[in-house]
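Summary for the steering committee. The consortium agreed at its last meeting that each partner would contribute one worked example illustrating the joint modelling workflow. Our contribution is presented below. We chose a case with several input lines so that the handling of multiple components could be demonstrated. No manual editing was applied between input and output; the record is shown as generated.
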Amino acid sequence: MTKPKVATTSLAGCFGCHMSILDIDDRILKLVELIDFNKSPVTDIKKFSERCLVGLVEGGCCNEENVHVLQDFRKNCDVLISVGDCAIMGGIPAMRNGISLKECFQEAYQDGVTVYNPSGKIPSDKELPLLLDKVYPCSAIVKMDYHMPGCPPSADTIWETLVALLTNKPLDLPYELIKYD
Amino acid sequence: MSDKIKFTIDDVEIEAEAGQTILQAADAAGVYIPRLCANKNLTPHGSCRVCTVKVNGRSQAACTQPVAPGINVESESEEIKAYRKSLVEMLFVEGNHYCMFCEKSGNCELQAVAYRLGIDAPKHEYLFPSRDVDASHPEIFIDRNRCILCGRCVRASKELDGKNVFQFVGRGIHKKVAVNSDAKLSDTELAGVDMAVSSCPVGAILRKRVGFAIPVGQRLYDAKPIGSDIEASRTDK
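What follows is the complete predicted structure of the assembly.
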């Protein structure tokens, strides 16, 4: 029997949730017995090469590339999980939601006290993904099947969740493992 | 002849004093009913509706509804739990609640009630409203992004501090806590030791320079769910 495939990605996140995945320590050896990683920063596979059972999504959507990646995940994964508060509610990046894009750009490239930008231009290369008007939670873009809160969710939370999902058992997390911080 | 009033919560018999609310009687009997706007030192407000129970089949706020002989109170039914969950989820999407960097995190009643109700993520769309912060006061700031309009500060300032520093203004989605001065918090009589400050269940009114003092793991709701203290006094177990 072939092992189920798991894909992971970090959208508008800080990679802290991926660090927390690695924080399962030696259990990662048990994990690779249970699954194969497909598209993921862990494997550096850039494109889905086969259908995945689980997609772990860190971070919300702040630009068009995030949206495309997330839609790609939805297409290629049976179960999509928001990992961490950014995927669930936008997180720290969503703090810009009360500020206009124009003001954000001005602060970042023109008026900020540490800005060095003699041309005064705001980067507009075609290669750069366009920023969205707001930072969106993943569930505002595609259907997310499960949510794993935390900043980041603890390694134990991630481990228990994955193992329950992969072994088809109900998940009953103890109180200490569900936290929003 | 005893003047105790007998009634049931989820089929458990409770004895109450005349004049108590359902919430007070439940607390005394060691039965926890989730609540946010209620505080035992303040006049009941009945605004958050998180303590909603069914009294003989009708929805009532346990914090304002007086006990009566023989009433049948339903609190932990699937229907009521789902209703509470939805209410708390709405509070999360209606404000800007960034638990990850909030000084109140771990000691926050909104967060703790959400943990207790088993909320992993709100089902509703986030509104990301534009709310203001008033940090003009030397000792205290008010961050309206985190305010849930429970009115505890309004009541505590009036009833316990005798000052009337806070009051609600506006209606519906525009409702907010305003301060009793022309413009700023610093122009009010508010002091750092006021009960109006410590009564805030969330991180909306906080004292400055004391945040993050307690390490993660030792905060109020890190190890045990909110209400554990009330449940510890339960006698019928």
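The longest strand of chain A covers residues 52-58. Chain A touches chain B at residues 82, 85, 88-92, 94-95, 97-98, 134, 137, 139-140, 146-149, 151, 175-176, 178-181 (CB under 8 Å).
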